Structures are given as C-alpha cells and as structure tokens.
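Milestone 3.1: sequence recovery, worked example.
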C-alpha cells in the first residue's frame, strides 16, 4: 500500500459519505426531493414513500460506491483501479435507470 492509494481511498470515502448524508436527509424531508440537479420536481402520489425510496437509492449508491473504491488501496498503478472506474460508470447508469424506470414510474402523479 502506498500513501497515494490511501489518500485516494479516503477522498473516495468522503465523497461516498456525502451521498449517504444526502440519502439520510431524504428520509426526513417533508416535500418531495428531486434526484436531478437544477430540475423542477414533478408532483408525486405519496411524498413520504417517494422520499424513502429515493433515500434508499442514495444510501445503496453510497455503500456500493465505497466498496468500488477498495481497489484504490492496491496502489496508484494497480490495474485493479480499472474496476473502480468501470464499476462507477455502471453504478451511475444503473442508479439513473432505477430512478426513472422504477421510482418515478411508481410515484409520478398522472
């Protein structure tokens, strides 16, 4: 383990914890919270259930993101870092699809 890998993993974990805090804050929100930045939130059927679903999505995203950072501990020049990069791309796209195809489909007011 080198210092660069440890520093990279610590920064990775801090970013992941920010998403965890965002997800936890959704559980306590009174009005529907948006998933996308700078986009007006549409009306939802059940605000509490919607916020809980999005909060769970963010918390799961955070935990998986933190796990994807583990290859950084192998060192800066390790080929395992490719798993972190590729895994993040798959994780982000999957999270967006879950939000749009599952959560919004279920809670969007018609």
């Amino acid at each position: 383990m080198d210092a660069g890998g440890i520093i990279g993993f610590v920064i990775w974990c801090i970013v992941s914890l920010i998403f965890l805090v965002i997800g936890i804050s959704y559980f306590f929100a009174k009005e529907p919270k948006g998933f996308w930045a700078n986009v007006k939130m549409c009306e939802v059927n059940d605000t509490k259930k919607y916020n809980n679903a999005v909060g769970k999505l963010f918390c799961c995203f955070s935990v998986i993101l933190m796990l994807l950072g583990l290859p950084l501990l192998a060192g800066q020049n390790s080929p395992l870092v490719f798993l972190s990069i590729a895994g993040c791309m798959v994780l982000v796209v999957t999270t967006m699809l879950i939000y749009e195809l599952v959560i919004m489909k279920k809670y969007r007011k018609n």
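The mean pLDDT is 92. Helices lie at 3-27, 47-68, 81-107.
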